Amino acid sequence: MASIPLTPPANALTPNRVAVLIGFGLVLWAAGVVMLRWLADAGAMTGAWLPLVYAAVIPLTLPCIPLGPRLARLPASETARCTALVCATAVTIDGLVIGFVPWVYAADADLARAVAGCLLWAIGVALILGLIRRG
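The structure corresponding to this sequence follows.
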């Protein structure tokens, strides 16, 4: 009779690891909101500044990609799955905020859309970076 291993495989998304990744997604979403809300209040989410803000997302996102697997104690080969779960968390929160309380992003509706758009851009950038990073 074969015995059942008591420890999950090294690359298993256990409930604890999923919770860590969801928490990481919440923290990153909140940090993005604080940063973009500040930029919106400073007038940097309109005009010529907006493309610069979008461009800055890429280098700011790069160091976050390898953190997911590290925080969840998963091998680097699980970067894509970790990134997907972190991004799914952030986009879920985005959907709720955009639909119900857009003033969280900015008091002005146009600025709130600009912040929401930049957050969605950041999620897309993170997904691409997470998929192309292979440990």
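The two ends are 37 Å apart (CA to CA).
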